[in-house]
Queue: 2 jobs
Job 1
Amino acid sequence: MTETRGATVAEPAAGGAAEIPRLGISGVGRDFHTKHGVTHAVSGIDLTIPRGEFVALIGRSGCGKTTVLRMLGGLLPPTAGTIEVDGKSLWRDGRVDSSAVTKLGVVFQEANLFPWFSILDNIALPLKLRGVGKKQRRRRATELAELVGLTGFERSYPRELSGGMRQRAAIARALSTEPDLLLMDEPFGALDALTRERMNLELQRIVQETTSTVVFVTHDIPEAVFLADRVVQMTPRPGRINTILPVDFPKPRDVELETTPKFNEIVRALRRELDEED
Ligand SMILES: Nc1ncnc2c1ncn2[C@@H]1O[C@H](COP(=O)(O)OP(=O)(O)OP(=O)(O)O)[C@@H](O)[C@H]1O
């Protein structure tokens, strides 16, 4: 296990050739101008994420995690730096490149399903918006419902499902367009501990089956260590990267991992970093 402070970790290139990373973040910052003055929410973020990597973003409330995710998701333009998806700029002159944004899937804390659509229609909605024919999108949505363990609930409505099931439907919807990059902001934050543990296992399986690259925001340090290949810890005012911690436990990981001394040592090391901010 190596530790890197405030640095970009260069990725080893396969076969010696320089591989274009899935995500290249360079010098990214975001200021907010309000009537009370300027908030430097995020500053000098450098991070390179290769294909297939799972990166967890942790840090105290207000350190800029959501701001970073919104910039990566094409929802908020950076005021400094560049973001590249597969080597292509996501933002140009404050405007998002629509061809780059099609490579992204986003899941938030709230599932945000449409209550008047069935689960199948919710999952298929992004495909409908892209003009995919009814038969094809229903077939794909049915496959995705199976992938996230919702077979048998395709005709149900969101209100008839539990919070965990709704979140699984939201993940299936985000995956429907086969995104190259899945961005998740506290997706399991509203769930009880047991459901959250189950969702972590499910997410791990789904990510392995779809070979997705993931940026996952969480407050929960054990959750971050359980899921991630690297944990990126941010500090506030302005939000910066403080530590990048590789987590090299083999995958798939089992919940038993959380009882091992090495797992707890990593969790404690990250907690210490957060405590040092006080
Ligand atoms: N639209 C906005 N206008 C003004 N300030 C903002 C805006 N959005 C975020 N901020 C400020 O930017 C900083 C970072 O906020 P952000 O929501 O990204 O933090 P966070 O780490 O995601 O917090 P939490 O863990 O509580 O969700 C905060 O100081 C916040 O007040």
Job 2
Amino acid sequence: MLTMRKYHGLGNDYLVLSPAELAGPLGVADIRLICHRNYGVGSDGILLGPIMPGSEDFAAFCAEAGLNAADCAGVCCALRIYNPDGSEAEKSGNGLRIFSRWLHDRSLVGSAPFRLATLGGVVEVTIADPQQSITVAMGRATFWSDQIPVTGPRREVLNEELVLGGRTLRYCAASVGNPHCVVLWDGELSPAVAREYGPQLECAPCFPRRTNVQFMRVEDAHRVRIEIWERGAGYTLASGSSATAVAAVAMRLGYCQSPVTVSMPGGDLTVTAAADMMLRQTGPTALVCECRWFGRDGDQAF
Ligand SMILES: N[C@@H](CCC[C@H](N)C(=O)O)C(=O)O
């Protein structure tokens, strides 16, 4: 039996699961079942942590993430981030706020800034108010094709075109630790837009590791609106790494200046860019419930 807590950030919900609770490895089938909204608990993903410094798992995690001892100096712990399809994500903005809130709820961190290791790099977190205001320094955005990755000659992927279903889409690609494709959308924004084009872009051959997809409308110099299709999760109400990537694109193209408020169906996130281009996202978290998982009950397929 596993005890886990469910939280959400602007309607983007995650289950936090401690490795200490697990009897064995968490397999793809387990993740899919736990996240399933009919056959499982239901969530946009699983956060597996804390993975504590000094443990074998932490050493293996750092090797996989390409983090050396200097990168990890002073790191509080690491976490793994799973999508509902069982794939593993390098980073998640809402996931990092939620995991930080979980650490805070257990008195493992306080109001002093602390660092967390992800497969997409080390981030710094500051909790001003666990419910209303958690800030994550997400890192710097890159638009370079080999770092996202996007196929083809090495270039910054800005204002490129892709034809889908007879419609020409203009997009930029970025990585903030995980990959994003930001479509510059001039028409009416709706969930239907994300549901129609999102799945095709997520798996387009030019994104060898698939991609998260956002459809962006610029409202003014400090506000954009987006609809989101997440890699491995599908349509979601909010996404912190998406908001960060979108703000980076809007600033890079000269449409916006810091701070940028990113409006999503689930609510707003504020993204700032410092002089050194460090991107920080600030937003809320909410505790939903604690539940006990009894594992597979019979041979249910879905
Ligand atoms: N919801 C997240 C993003 C989660 C990971 C993403 N689906 C991926 O595969 O990269 C967020 O808040 O950033």
